[in-house]
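Sample 3 of the quickstart, ligand 2-acetamido-2-deoxy-beta-D-glucopyranose:
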Amino acid sequence: MKMKLLVYLLLFAFTISSCLHRCFARGGMQSSILSGDFNRSSHASYARRLFLDFNSVTRLSELAQGYMTNDELGKAIKEFGVRCSNISRIYSIGKSVNGVPLWVIEISERPGEEDAKPAFKYIGNVHGDEPVGRELLMFLANWLCDNHLKDPLATLIVENVHLHILPSMNPDGFELRSRNNANNIDLNRDFPDQFFPINEDENARQPETRAIMNWLRDIQFTASATLHGGALVANYPWDGTQDKRTNYYACPDDDIFQFMARIYSHSHYNMSFSKEFVEGITNGASWYPIYGGMQDWNYIHAGCFELTLEISDNKWPSAAELPTIWKYNKMSMLNLVASLVKTGVHGRIFSAVDRRPLPGSIMVSGINYTVRAGKTVADYHRLLAPRDRYEVMAIMPGYKPKSTTISLNEGPVTFNFVLDPEDTIKGIEFADIFWGVHLEVYFALIVILGFLCLIFKGRMKANVLKQRQSGGAKRPAMV
Ligand SMILES: *[C@@H]1O[C@H](CO)[C@@H](O)[C@H](O)[C@H]1NC(C)=O
Ligand SMILES: *[C@@H]1O[C@H](CO)[C@@H](O)[C@H](O)[C@H]1NC(C)=O
Ligand SMILES: *[C@@H]1O[C@H](CO)[C@@H](O)[C@H](O)[C@H]1NC(C)=O
Ligand SMILES: *[C@@H]1O[C@H](CO)[C@@H](O)[C@H](O)[C@H]1NC(C)=O
Ligand SMILES: [Zn+2]
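Result:
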């Protein structure tokens, strides 16, 4: 009797489970779609291949003649916009205290369009007396324009990223040869701080700071870097500590920040050989804590993973050295932008009802940080360091959360979430389908079980007879 029951149960469970499996498969369980936008096979071992050679001799531009004045920089940006019009656009995010426009170059296959691609920003010349960045960013823009469709890395960036370049955030400071802006304020101390109530008054903030903050309300950047001078190191959050001590102070995304900082330092000519900083990278607070900095504010308030890059020991080297410094930083600058598409999990969030994009959020188990999906396209770009296993969850008010497990050891993953609404109508529909199918299966099951029952009865009888005849040997059958 027990044996019979067991067989029935097993059979029942098996049939139900295979039915359920099919039901769900038919119902459109959303499966992961690997490698959407880029050639995954060629970027599989990105961590190693990111560090491409920079021995290729760079064609040095005429820009080497000297540091551009603010007027010359403005002119160079406009000329770039004309020369490279099909993959760029020029816009201003505001003006400095003295009225100099803060020009931005966007480089992308479809500049200005909202699509499912991540955005990266470079900001140079935050401190007026650190002008190397503003020159290097013009080298970078020109190199990308010249090498699009010729060099695979240039093409990858143009086709998969919206790269925004602000060569000078502090043109007045540059003109005055001063660290601070024209109001004598350090712009990298002028942002709201996470620990101390400084810079809370929005109207008291500098126009350059306000311009950056409004820019980030307008465009959702996945990652960014600011270029500084006076040291050679890639600096990552946190920049500040609660107790004002100089200590390593890790943010929730310490792993990916270290990974990105390493991409920069190891792609650089000699940043990773630093004697002062292991591998040429440092946590900001373990170097020297700052408050009101741009880097922490980006991560906390703008969902943007920002590094602070110190790109030359000498703050204001002779202009003749600029082409060499560009050569030293070129692969780092390119690889950091490319890391946006070569790491992490990317995709979009949709509604299961009408396939509408849902501007939800992405959470990763074990990391206390939420990444928002884009407002219109609902694309998300969650940078994560390579690891065997991540549990990634999409949430949206009014919808049931959905999670998935991914591995990022083989490179980036593309995964689209399709969320079911929380309302009851959907629940009833599902129940109808379930019971409809269930009845059919139930009928088939009765027939099968009846049949099996007959067979078993026959067998059992035969066995009992046999055992009786053979004298009942008791060796259990082991399989
Ligand atoms: C993708 O990568 C493979 C392997 O490296 C290469 O053979 C192929 O040409 C690449 N395709 C494109 C479109 O780049
Ligand atoms: C942009 O223009 C250049 C030169 O005119 C051309 O080679 C390139 O194919 C164009 N790129 C795009 C994305 O249209
Ligand atoms: C990197 O190279 C430059 C130029 O040769 C040199 O001045 C600097 O000290 C080097 N830095 C490190 C950390 O090796
Ligand atoms: C997660 O981060 C928020 C700030 O973003 C903080 O208020 C909260 O306490 C953190 N939770 C945990 C469990 O650390
Ligand atoms: Zn600086």
